[in-house]
Amino acid sequence: MPSRGGTILTRLLAAVAAAAVLATGCQAATNELHPSREELKAAPRGSLGQVIVDDDGHTVYLFEKDEADESYCHGACESVWPPLTTSRAPALEGRLDSSKVTLLKRGDGLMQVVYAGHPLYYYQGDTAPKDTNGQEKNHFGAHWYTLRPTGQKAEAKEDGGDSDGS
User: Fold this and answer.
1) What's the pTM value of the predicted model, to 2 decimals?
2) How far apart are CA 22 and CA 26, in angstroms?
């Protein structure tokens, strides 16, 4: 018959194992919603001009709080702004510059795509390709912007033209 201390230890180990399974399942769900991307390209987005999108046409964003070698979007932030992750540097189409692409290893082990020093993210409020609902949002301590092929944040143009400012 196990001792009382052994029973508590067994329950504790079972709880830790269950938490690990749940954490793994949550991570898998995030990856299914935003699977690894193989290509980035520029696409017109109305008054924002040309911005960077993934191979399905979904807009990606930069977080002004981030640094080139560190993402400050974790936990609750990631549920609203999932990082653009990949297993290798994505192919680039059009005017995007391959010398501006790096990968950042996140705390969860995933590799996040970085363009011109900006870790890239999706916005959960964008439900279809071409959406830019995350533009200029102030969430989690800083603003979010779409990104031009030049590596600068995109801001709406007064004339509504499709120029990318480069």
Assistant:
1) 0.74
2) 6
